[in-house]
Write a structure and sequence with these properties.
One of its GO terms (molecular function) is zinc ion binding. It comes from Halostreptopolyspora alba. Residues 52-90 form the SWIM-type domain. The structure is a single chain. The protein folds into two domains: 8-96, no CATH class; 106-227, no CATH class. It has eleven helices and four strands. It has helices at residues 8-14, 17-28, 70-73, 80-91, 106-113, 117-129, 132-142, 146-160, 176-191, 195-212, 219-227; strands at 32-37, 41-47, 51-57, 64-67. The protein has a four-stranded antiparallel beta sheet. Strand 2 (41-47) and strand 3 (51-57) form a beta hairpin. Bound molecules: zinc ion.
Length: 233
């Protein structure tokens, strides 16, 4: 097996948080297969909307990746497929597997755990009031069907309000962050059992994105296409 001297923390700091989270989910879902080690790194297949081939190299101590998905072919580093493979690789080596990270703010966590649930509910609803993605997540957790409508509303507004940035990946720019959160809501729907609704919504949203932005494609449209089970061609 090749030597790899990176840790989960290194991978995390090298990746976009949204792709890390998605890659982590892919890894946990067991979508990584055919791991092949060699002197310089590892190759593997990731089962997404179709199969993607990922290659990770640690030559000269530099961690690099490539993937056959649309993002990878555009030269984007650390798509979710590459993250999933890196995590699978780390998991095969007990020595480098780290303990789960502590909560970001232990003092705040302790405070919240001590609070009355009615007070907590009020705080959450107040936050959800002006964040439709949060509202949809809570509704999905509660099992109410309004979750799908809320998610649709948030997604459509984020898509039409989005200004694409063809020159790069600028989180928070041109409504990209808002759109990212709205697309994340689809994952929440899936998590709470609205799989068919989420796929249908993703396909509809992809069509709206395509129409609104006249065929422009980026990481957002790629996610929608994949979640909608649409072909890449
Ligand atoms: Zn990829």
């Amino acid at each position: 097996m090749a030597q790899h001297r990176f840790r989960v923390e290194d991978l995390k700091s090298a990746t976009d948080p949204q792709w890390f989270a998605r890659g982590e989910r892919y890894f946990e879902q067991g979508r990584v297969s055919r791991l092949r080690y060699d002197q310089r790194g590892v190759s593997a297949v990731v089962d997404g909307s179709r199969n993607y081939l990922v290659r990770i190299d640690t030559s000269d101590g530099v961690l690099s990746d490539s993937c056959t998905c649309a993002l990878g072919q555009d030269g984007y580093s650390w798509c979710k497929h590459a993250v999933a493979v890196a995590l699978a690789w780390l998991a095969t080596d007990r020595e480098t597997t780290s303990s789960p990270p502590p909560p970001p703010d232990p003092e705040l966590s302790a405070f919240l755990e001590d609070q009355d649930s009615a007070w907590l509910a009020e705080q959450l609803l107040r936050i959800a009031d002006d964040q439709p993605a949060v509202l949809a997540r809570l509704q999905a957790a509660a099992g109410t069907h309004t979750a799908v409508d809320t998610a649709r509303d948030a997604l459509y507004r984020a898509i039409t309000g989005y200004t694409p940035d063809p020159d790069g990946w600028n989180p928070g720019d041109g409504g990209a962050e808002w759109l990212r959160q709205a697309i994340d809501t689809l994952d929440d729907l899936v998590e709470y059992g609205y799989e068919a609704e989420a796929a249908e919504l993703a396909a509809d949203a992809h069509a709206l994105f395509d129409k609104t932005h006249e065929g422009y494609e980026d990481g957002h449209s790629e996610r929608l296409r994949e979640m909608g089970g649409l072909d890449s061609d």
